[in-house]
Amino acid sequence: xxxxxxxxxxxxxxxxxxxxxxxxxxxNVDDVKEDKKTSVKIGVxxxxxYDTFISSLVNHLTEHAKYLEQEKGITITxxxxxxxxxxxxxxxxxxxxxxxxxxxxxxxxxxxTDASVAIDMAMKADIPIIFFNRELVEKDLQRWDKLFYVGxxxxxxxxxxxxxxxxxxxxxxxxxxxxxxxxxxxxxxxxEPTHQDAxxxxxxxxxxxxxxxxxxxxxxxxxxxxxxxxxxTKMSQWLKSIPNEIEIxxxxxxxxxxxxxxxxxxxxxxxxxxxxGIDGTKVGLEAVYNGDMxxxxxxxxxxxxxxxxxxxxxxxxxxxxxxxxxxxxxKYIRKPHIIVxxxxxxxxxx
Length: 350
Prior knowledge:
Blueprint: H1 4-35, E1 39-46, H2 52-72, E2 75-82, H3 87-99, E3 104-107, H4 116-125, E4 129-132, H5 138-141, E5 147-151, H6 154-176, E6 184-190, H7 196-211, E7 216-223, H8 228-241, E8 248-251, H9 254-266, E9 274-276, H10 282-290, E10 296-298, H11 301-317, E11 332-334, E12 338-340, H12 345-349
């Protein structure tokens, strides 16, 4: 028989053990709370901060990062670096992000054919890379399951730009055809020589125009590196060497289209050629609205930025992407292009 004293001692021991167990459980819960990830560091290297489209995309990156911070109750550190069109500089930037233990690295490649150094470093450090806007070679993207690409489909923009020209010619060809030869005389301003978008846009815009039954003649083709000032210089040279012969200026992006317009206005051309661009930047849309451009192709900088930030968040916190964002083949987030003309430009200016 146990004495009352022994029973009481045993009961007190049981209570003490219970309190100790609960204390350990609460301590573990606190440790879990402390260990729960509440922040993410994202390093972003862009090829050139003075590119108008990229500048817009970067602004949208910052905006959506702030939105996601509030929605998720987390901290997002977004560190931007400008590679200044130098691939070696960009590789150093990626190396620094890895050294500083960033969670995700986002890269707007200087040279789309030279992604191997960045990929090798990221694979060794086990840090995912999201490439954006300037699409790397597919075999490089397939090297590792933590490499991704966010951007549009380049050939879409070329086809749509061609369709803008075709639709305009159907209504106004007699006005455009200055020498009444029923041939569309054009010059084209291209982006960088090795850039996939420049090559594809140049090919598909002309293919689309000719497939519609419009005869064309190329009077000039110059590289202007997406740059407004360079495009103005090239256009000025054409206006001096082949005055009154150019019927349309086709530019791989809005900045180069605007450079051509700058040159036309400075030369005070009485019967100027029509101009068409791509990207739908703020200044490009204004040019369409003002009648300086017959149209542009909207490249969704905001949608791409949201895709980049949402993908970075999902990778860092191991969460699913929002339903409205599709990760194609486990690798790609694609945003469609949209034709913009004076008929719908106000929608996009908002």
